[in-house]
Structure prediction request, 192 residues.
Amino acid sequence: MKHTVDNKESKKIIGFDMDGVIINHVRNKIRLAGLFGVKLAPHQTPSEIIKTTMSEPQYRELQYLLYDHPDIGPSAPMMPGAIKVIEKIRRQGIPYFLISRRKKAGTAVKLLTRHGLWPKYFNEKNTYFVKEIEDKETRAKKLGITHYIDDEQKVLNALVSVKNKFLFDYLGVFKNTPHKRVSSWKEIAKLI
Prediction:
């Protein structure tokens, strides 16, 4: 006879990063880097890589334009399949949260609204905008996150309280990561 254990340890509580996981900034990063005279290929657009191709002031300006500019920020498309999987998670009653490092929550909410994600899937009850990587760990621990998906290795390294960490490697550039890799929302669906 198969026994199931219904306790807090067996319950999934999923956490998502927004930028690079739910929202696809590849096209905008390539276009904006071009304004600084930096030519990027898609595989050079992850944050951990793009920093090495630009000066620090250029990178800070690119981040402002990408995330905080009132016209450019909200123009980014969603990752393919994201809304379908988020809907599946919601229907199954699995608790889920968005924990994102954004300086201006308003631009992020505008982007989520544009894609039909705010307030249907993400809202004031399950969305947290934090300032630093360490704040993601603090929030994840408070929420009891058991599974977290982020596109930055340094964030996953900092999430010491989360047992199941997944690197969203949409472009397949982080082959030697110590984290479990997922490259699509179809793969994320299999984790649920």
Notes: Confidence is low (pLDDT under 50) at residues 1-9. The domain at 8-23+78-191 is CATH 3.40.50.1000 (Rossmann fold). The first helix runs from residue 26 to 35.
